[in-house]
Amino acid sequence: MSTVPERHAPFLRELKLNRCSLKYTLLVTIYISLLVTANTAFSQTEEAVNWLSFEQLNTALQEAPKKVFIDFYADWCTPCLKMQKEVFTNKAIVKEINKNYYAVKMNVETTDTIHFGNQVFFNTRAKRRNPIHQIPLLMAQQKDRQFSLPALVFLDEKFKAQARYFQFLSTTQLLTIISEL
Question: In whole angstroms, what is the distance from residue 72 CA to residue 108 CA?
């Protein structure tokens, strides 16, 4: 059995301490990185409105009736883009919409054929200068006015219109509307 000379003893003690320190540091680093990853994943799911398509809405309404919020937009609509960036990413808005509504987001210029209820909707104006799909024309057209965006529609559990807004709504304005409906 070999023994370590006395002069090497302090070095070996320090080496053992450094190994313990290294293990501890490694464990703490792994723990913190797991917490950060989990927190990031959770916050991403909480900071986004759960947007549905009309087909998904149809299924959801059959399973569990709930109020409906519809955001009609177009890629060229500056106020629509501003609402997407500033309003629909606000934590309070996300929480209230996800909690109280089925939310639908629809590009009014889509050429998709949409099956909703027992009907089929399509864009009859797809080749025109102003190619607005049938659904936004039916749900968000203002009487005796040209179609305009943004168009926000609130429906009750029975799919009856409660309110329609044809303008940019700030976070405060939208929260007020949601709380009143």
Answer: 6
This prediction has a pTM of 0.72
Mean pLDDT of residues grouped by 10 in the chain (181 residues)?
A: 62 60 59 61 66 94 95 96 97 97 96 91 88 91 87 94 96 95 90
In the DSSP assignment, the letter for residue 83 is: I
Q: Give Cβ neighbours of residue 64 (< 8 Å, ≥ 6 apart).
A: none
Please enumerate, as own/partner, the contacts of 80-86 that have beta carbons within 8 Å and a separation of 24 or more.
80/149, 80/150, 82/168, 83/150, 83/168, 83/169, 86/170, 86/171
Beta-sheet strands, E only, within 76-160? 101-107, 114-116, 119-121, 151-155
The pair of three-digit structure tokens given for residue 77, joined into one six-digit string: 């609509």
